[in-house]
Specification:
- This protein has 87 residues and is an alpha+beta fold.
- The protein has one domain (2-84).
- Helix content is 49%, strand content 22%.
- It has one helix at residues 2-44; strands at residues 48-52, 57-61, 64-67, 80-84.
- It has a four-stranded antiparallel β-sheet, with no helix packed on it.
- A hairpin with a 2-residue loop joins strand 2 (57-61) and strand 3 (64-67).
- The termini are far apart.
Length: 87
């Protein structure tokens, strides 16, 4: 019985490590693309103070977007401005 438990634990640990390695290897390109689209959105909407993509909620502070971590179960959409600077 102990052998079976150890074998299962080792297999599980290997599977988790493999999944983590695969996710971290591909994360760089996605993060770069998201950063580029964020900068493009801010350049196209200079008066936008708060926006979201239904996953992360962002506020522009001193010209820099400060965003929350993505929600667990969300469907990412295009950024939508939710608060604009008053004129």
């Amino acid at each position: 019985m102990r052998y079976a438990v150890r074998k299962f634990a080792l297999s599980f640990a290997f599977a988790v490590a493999s999944a983590a390695a695969a996710l971290s290897a591909g994360g760089g390109a996605t993060a770069q693309t998201q950063g580029d689209s964020l900068q493009e959105f801010m350049a196209a909407n200079p008066d936008c103070l708060e926006f979201n993509d239904q996953c992360s909620f962002c506020a522009v502070v001193n010209g820099v977007a400060e965003c929350s971590t993505p929600q667990i179960a969300c469907v990412k959409r295009e950024n939508q401005c939710t608060k604009r600077a008053s004129k």
